[in-house]
Amino acid sequence: MLTVVPVSAQLPLSLQNLVVENVAVGECAFRPAPPPPSQHQAVSPAGSAPSSSSTRPACYFTPPNRTVCFRGIETKRFQAGGKFNLTRWLILCDWPLRSFDPLVLSRLVPRIERLAVTGRVLQRLAHDFPALPYLRMVNITGTRLNHTGVNAFYELERLQVLNLRGNELEQIQPYRFRSGHVEVYLQGNLWNCTNDMIWLLKEQSRQYVDKPTLVCKDWKYTGRPVMTAMEYKRVVRESCLHEEIWNCSCHVSYLRLSENGLSFHPMIMVNCSDRGFYQLPQYLPGNTTVLHIARNKLQSVDSLTTNEHYQSVQDIYLDENRITTIDILEDTIWLDNFRILSLRGNRLNRIRVYSVEHAIERNPGVGKLYLSNNPWRCGCRFAIRFQRFLRKHESLVADSRNITCYFINDDDGRKQYLPVLTVTPNDICRPSEHNTAAFYNTLSIIFASLIVLIFTKLAYDYYHYRKYGKLPWLIMKMP
């Protein structure tokens, strides 16, 4: 069985986004007013578009060494020298471009020690950071940055803190650093846990400081802790090395939170299609809910009823195998609890219609049943029952319109195929069979009517006895 990984008290269980700390750069909250128009500039009337001066870069130097720039960098001020040459801490607010090129830093602020960049337009770094011998802290937060290379910060020899919180990173590989130890902060990104970040489990340096708080944002694992998702992926990967399924692939398709909120229950998908199986594998990872085993050489589905590893399997895809019957599933727990059963392209010619129908009626979670591309036999009684079943459950039998059956043409001995939903007794029943079927149908109606009449008479006699205390006339005449 797959080990259930407990949830640490530090790991968030909420499906809502976490509050991301230290993303907002305080200096960017005080936006400067646009400069007053010069004598040669016309003032924009109310309601018109702002003048170009309100969108130009504006930089402000604060002694002793801090510069805050809005909407870009005023390169002319830095190139002109003066107080801007003293800049050691550069804060870039509302960065207006989709990309930021770190190469400009070595030209404008070669002695920079701290850098902060924010702005919802920024999506990528144009180049890796160059060698900036004094740069110790890089803070790129609150942007739409979605990718960084492993060497993006490699040349920063004195880097101590890398803050990438609150961006749109979906996946990263371990960064390469020259400096001895760098604290990396990654909280609040859009982590796609369907990707492989198992390396975070093996990372022992504690360099990635807030990794226990990282949360998945992809559709499959939304709100689940990244570390928990990666731990399950690791366990499932190891389970998939079992000799029975070593050539199959295994994936965690979903992590369901337990009722007490203290652990997760994984839902595992195993894909063994096109692997040459002659029988269903005798081993599956615990909590396997979906099994793809199409295009093999299976002839039997016995393991669904006898093997405990299949108790949790709800969706099974058995397409294009050699299965000739599923009668063994009649009145089984598995058939009463399945969600998807796909049997397309096998060798089925008959099924026990009443058994499948009863199972569907008892099964509240049934989703889809696929039965097309099988050599269904157009026997008179079976085809009519099968047709009634398909019409009644057309929404569940997803491929019902594509299901055909065949009969042997008396004239040339060839197989003739007809859609089951449109077949009529005249198409498939010989006159004797047709009359026999009609006779049995009439007899069934007569017997049903008699049963109803008998129960009605019993109910009347019971009521008459309770009210008047008299037994039925027939009972009174009996010796």
TrEMBL record:
GO-annotated biological processes: monoatomic ion transmembrane transport
Chain intervals with Low complexity compositional bias: 44-58
Stretches the record annotates as Disordered: 34-58
Transmembrane segments annotated in the record for this chain: 438-460
Keyword Oxidoreductase included in the entry's annotation: no
Segment forming the signal sequence: none
Location relative to the cell: Cell membrane
InterPro entries noted in UniProt: KCNMA1_auxiliary, Leu-rich_rpt, LRR_dom_sf, SRCR
SUPFAM superfamilies reported for this sequence: L domain-like (SSF52058)
Keywords: Cell membrane, Disulfide bond, Ion channel, Ion transport, Membrane, Signal, Transmembrane, Transmembrane helix, Transport
Keyword Glycosyltransferase: no
Name by which UniProt lists this protein: SRCR domain-containing protein
